[in-house]
TrEMBL record, chains A, B:
InterPro entries: C-N_Hydrolase (IPR003010), C-N_Hydrolase_sf (IPR036526). This is Putative amidohydrolase. One of its GO terms (molecular function) is hydrolase activity. Pfam families: CN_hydrolase. Gene3D superfamilies: Carbon-nitrogen hydrolase. Residues 5-244 form the CN hydrolase domain. Belongs to the carbon-nitrogen hydrolase superfamily. NIT1/NIT2 family. Keywords: Hydrolase. CDD domains: nitrilase.
Length: 272, 272
């Protein structure tokens, strides 16, 4: 297992409904990333980057099964570039339910994880079916937990993923202005609470009625920001090293919480 | 019920083992607080402020039942000043178990809450028996949750208190250098995660082998710091307004998490 590896986040603008345009842009970004930063092992795109952040009837037209043509195309890209690639998309199941989903593709081209957003925002609830299953993926980089955007605001999901061994949380986002401060605070909290890396890749630019502020960020397991993009309307690639040895060192010194959780107490109290 | 009221935190240095000296200092601080800031309704002192932060055999000598002479004296002070007073002390039960405890006294002089620290640090485990019961107190100021220091590092306890209606968390601390950054991050996280006020009152000054850095802080329900003390070795009183109307407004606009928790999911997953 890799104890140290580089990841990249592609902060990008998606055009609503323009799947082929967005896919072409993602391919161009991935190619650029491979060329400029050949050591990157995993590339994360934002929430719903394939379709744009749409909350309308159009969703039904842009939804696909996880293994539809979008996956086929991204799978070929992952193989060609020998990269882990993760992206957000509108998923449709056999019963035509729609999900706000995140897929993780192995450099072999295989889908190794597909997560359906558990914590939908109030506006999203009108369109998406909520997921109900936390997803952990074992890779040759380590154990990776999958989350999406507003999931960051809930301590429970990240805690569950970390208790079950997640070392890095991938969190594609479409987080809108003026809420950049809570975005940063929630992402930081999930990192330090669980002594895990948090990679939050946000959309950037206007998508009426929203404006996505970018500020894609990677937090270390001590809650410190180790890489962050701008807020000035620009697409960009940010990168950071994930260092599992350092994370383990933190967990054995000051950040000993996982060994000190009072599960006897939590089991005994009513949460709801 | 008060929808808006002022609280104060007494960042102080305690002398290890000098109960009468520490008590006299606390009385002086409380009197000063009442004189300078007559609108303050609740005054919080640090963790183990009565005895100093001791981890040695001395603990057995300085421990008391919750209603011992320390309580009697602080109870009279609360009545005289017509203040809620909260302070950390070493508690001894009938079986001579020792607890790292926090007591909350009503302006009538009655004890309205006594909390035994649930999350002991690795060093504390050798001396104290861990508590196992979250404590919520209904007051005419609102519902108050009690926590102590390292409890801040665990999302579960604050979540439990908030789910059960806590509006303000009182958190006396003896948090040592060089860990002021995680202190701030954890306190902030507990506030924004749960849309509650967090009042963290730290000791300041040397207590071999520790140095307590002060930096006592009050965070608003949006995770922003609304008052903070210095880190320059000084005793001080900081204050902030607790505004329940504003907190409710936040909970009904962006910070809607308490209504969106997926308790169906959390119930179904194994936490341990």
């Amino acid at each position: 297992m890799a104890t140290s590896y580089e990841i990249a986040l592609a902060q990008m603008t998606s055009v609503n409904g323009d799947i082929s345009g967005n896919l072409a842009k993602m391919e161009a970004i991935a190619n650029e990333c491979k060329q400029k930063f050949p050591d990157v092992r995993l590339l994360l795109f934002p929430e719903l980057c394939i379709t744009g952040y749409i909350l309308s009837e159009t969703l039904k037209d842009v939804a696909q099964a996880w293994d539809g043509f979008i996956f086929q195309r991204m799978s070929r890209l992952a193989q060609k570039l020998q990269l882990y690639i993760a992206y957000g998309y509108v998923e449709k199941d056999d019963e035509v339910n729609l999900y706000n989903s995140l897929i993780l593709i192995h450099p072999s081209g295989q889908c190794v994880g597909n997560y359906r957003k558990i914590h939908l925002t109030p506006l999203e609830k009108a369109w998406f079916t909520p997921g109900s299953k936390p997803i952990l993926v074992d890779t040759d980089l380590g154990r990776i937990g999958l989350m999406i955007c507003w999931d960051l605001a809930f301590p429970e999901l990240a805690r569950y993923l970390a208790v079950h061994g997640a070392e890095l949380l991938l969190v594609p986002c479409a987080w809108e202005s003026p809420f950049h401060e809570p975005f940063q605070k929630f992402a930081m909290a999930r990192a330090i609470d669980n002594t895990v890396y948090v990679a939050a890749c946000n959309q950037v630019g206007r998508s009426f009625p929203f404006y996505f502020f970018g500020l894609s960020s990677i937090y270390g397991p001590d809650g410190n920001e180790i890489a962050a993009a701008n807020m000035d309307d620009q697409e960009t690639i940010i990168r950071a090293m994930i260092d599992e040895n350092w994370r383990q060192e933190l967990k054995q010194t000051f950040y000993t919480m996982m060994n000190e959780r009072r599960t006897d107490v939590y089991k005994g109290v009513e949460w709801t």
